[in-house]
What we know:
alpha+beta, Arc Repressor Mutant, subunit A, 2 domains, three-stranded antiparallel sheet
Amino acid sequence: MDDLVRAVEATLFAAQEPMSTEAISAHLNGADVREALAALAGDYEGRGVNLVERGKRWHFQTAPDMAHLLRREREEVRRLSRAATEVLAIVSYHEPVSRAEIEAIRGVQTAKGTLDVLMEAGWVRIAGRREVPGRPVIYATTPEFLAHFGLQSRRDLPDIDELRAAGLLDPVEDALEAAMAGPPEEIVESSEPLAEDEESA
């Protein structure tokens, strides 16, 4: 193992969060680290710890088949509400997307708490503002979203047939199909209030 590969390994091992290729290179005085990363990923393949790339950022993680050894007690899974699940689906398939666009796709007003829950989970972030009158905030997913669901990029998101085959569409099948079908042709601002979410996040 040459010195550059060892340096990349040491840098990632000590990093407090995943690092992009550019960040690793900058840390190592501009060295081209792409081949070193590929070599390291190969070296760690099949071991108890893997080097993986998620959302164009690299980090070490426990091999999926070894994760159960590290759980001292069963974790209680926090389930998202239907509203939060629908919003997450819309953001992930249409990012960047504004709150008005989310509401137009869902057909109901989105409670502020719904987006707050997704941002607190680290799965959704504010991605800027749309350059239209009023400059609304737009939302996108995060590298943590990709890492949590084991996706390398948004291109790995399942299509509608894959979700249906896996039995994952109930109880939000309509929302997912609407989200994946595409945004409405025109977003019209209405002066009449939309219906509030029946479920809070």
